[in-house]
Amino acid sequence: MKRIVFLLIFSVTLSVPVLGDSLMARQSNINEPELESGRELFEQKRYEEALLKFEEILKHDTTDEEALRLRPLCQDLIAKDAYNLALGSARDGDSKTAVVYARKALKYRPNYLEAEHLLKVLSGTEGPPITDISKELYAESLDAIIEGDPKQALELAQKALDHYPDNVEARRMVERLSQRGAGTPK
Description:
Blueprint: H1 2-43, H2 47-60, H3 65-91, H4 95-108, H5 113-123, H6 130-146, H7 150-163, H8 168-179
């Protein structure tokens, strides 16, 4: 009788891990369509949508290795894309949009130093605003004209436009100097 009880307990003990393993396998199978969808979105560079998929998976299974690996990659790539859009907007003179994108970059990567710096520059708490840099470069291009160096003046006026494309004076300078043969604008 003791032998039968021992065998019964022994067989139940052996079956418990197997049940646990099958439960984990079933959980993995449940996540597979979501994981595949997240991977496809990631490969299509639709990082925000992919991130949502991986976070949904992690709500149900906090140990899913693939979701744990791809979630921070998505966050970094979203932050990088947002920072690049912020830079482009700042160069185009659209500081409101630049601020929105810089904040988005910091949302996904809070320690993104470049985005922090850009945000400070745009808010005027660090460094001169982009329009001031453009005006200063234009003033330097005027000095170059006075000194008789039209090529240097063209280069400086072009840099002023690179910083702030809506700088009308710098645009006129580039057009006039180009017409007079000082070089070709970029």
